[in-house]
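Sharing a chain and its predicted structure for anyone who wants a worked example. Both blocks are below, sequence first, tokens second.
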Amino acid sequence: MFLTDEEKAVLDGSEGEARAHAMDLMVRYAKALGAERLVETNNVCGGVVGSLPGRRDVLPEDKRHDMNAVYSLLNLDSDKTLDIPPVKTNTYRLIEAMDADLYDVQGVGEETQRLVRETTAFCQKSGYQLCNTCTPYQVGNVPLFGEHCAWMESSAVIYINSLIGARSNVEGAHSTAAASLIGKIPYWGYHIPENRRGTHLVEVEYPIDNMLDWGLMGYYVGEKVQENVPVFTGISGVPNANKLKHFGASMASSGGVEMYHIVGVTPEAPTRDVAFGGNRAQETIRFGRAELEEAYSWFSTAKDTDVDFVVLGCPHGSLEQVRLVAGLLEGKRLSANTDLWMFIPRSIKAIADRMGYTDTFRKAGAYLMTDSCAALSKVSPKDVKTAATDSCKQAHYLPATMGFGTWLGSTEQCVNAAISGKWTGGLE
């Protein structure tokens, strides 16, 4: 593996022990991947491990509240406590374990609150940008075409790879932590132009319109192509960002898709030939009404039509989505037996506050929540048995992570369920 003189110097300790350890971790990681070199990055999105109870139990008891020790072991794989310096790169933090304002509504215990506050203080000191969202691209971190990034969060990686043409693989807590300290990431996978070419052809034979349809098509194709690069033809018009956000998140949930092309829409697919870049399609998949119905049938995990909990905002909702839900809630009141939580980035909530949307949610008995997520933060109202969501990704995870039977439907169907307390939705 080739290292520059600068990289060798950092490895030898020219910038301190923590950065030397980060470089050593990155070199070992690169060798395991078969990468021949590292590439510079100044755009890292990662998570700081240790905000949930039990994560720090691997440390000695006297080290569990020493954030240098916590970060050293859980983010940098170092048994030795390192003195963690400020990050070298622009580094953005992903989802946290609670909403810092509504943790009591979320039922977050005192120990988790303490761990979150310790982690947040460490992030502030270290220079992490506290976006606390799975959609950094909605709150200002929009990479340039061709920019090398080091991002966690599968739904975000597929978004920037496909819709922007930035370059990232789905990284983990260790690789993003190391990248934040040294500004390097292995040159492999979707950093390499040849690996971004299409592998499978998807011929869309049914008019895909609403967000649920887009999510279901993504989920179906992800299941079929797994970790490959699908190329979609037959899409009429230009879908909006919210639909494609859910589309990519679904593909990344059912498979391991990190990039796709839509001919005539996404930047690296002006034509089918350009999208494939000389590759021959390994398989042609046809997607029509029958495939849409098949995909929807995979989500029949709920049996009870009494809905306890409606979950929106996975991936985190946009201002446009907040406006839609606020309009559906205007002048209404939720069923006494049903909660509705919508998760959004904190900076978007600041605008929602100014627009009066937050007040509309409050009057209806619903909540706009930030920083967190039902499935990943493991927060919910008490005694939930049946949930409803408009997200294929959330419907994929809730039964496994939270044990909820889950209905999947449109945003409108979910809001109606929250108001009536009953599920009457389905595939239209």
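Comments welcome. The mean pLDDT is 97.
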